[in-house]
Automatic annotation (TrEMBL):
Organism expressing this protein natively: Halobellus rarus
Domain of life: Archaea
DUF7313 domain mapped to chain residues: 2-148
Pfam families: DUF7313
Keyword list, A-Z: Membrane, Transmembrane, Transmembrane helix
Record's protein name: DUF7313 domain-containing protein
TM helices/strands, residue ranges: 15-37, 57-76, 119-140
InterPro entries, A to Z: DUF7313 (IPR055737)
Amino acid sequence: MQPLQFLVPLDALEALAPVLPFVVLGFVVLNILTRLLQHRKHAAQADDSDDDAVQRWLPHTLTTLGMVFASFLFMIVAPHGGMVMSVLALSVFVSDFFEFESRRVEASSKSKDLERPTAAIGASVFALLYAGYQSFFFLIEPLWNSII
């Protein structure tokens, strides 16, 4: 008997295994879109006179957490690919956290414009590439197997 057998329904998760890479890919794409919208909101909020003008945007936070949790679920059904995706998703999460804090500092200093979240964008690009690779591996699998 597995210790987590009653906490995580493994049979139901196995049924969702073919769909999980696409779910992670969807969360990564949504995360990139909400990051663009959040940066626009932060730029507008930074123009306000209040020192605490820059606030977190809930849709972006939800897509980031959804991407992390979906990659953890993917790690249960595909340990190697899920581990790599989880590391990339956690790097997006951590870079989002620090990028938000740096936007708050930039907004409170009022000395310069807000910069783009370059670290979070870079982490998201790597997450997008790997999620796309995991999701669409079936397209390159014959060529991959003939080489490897």
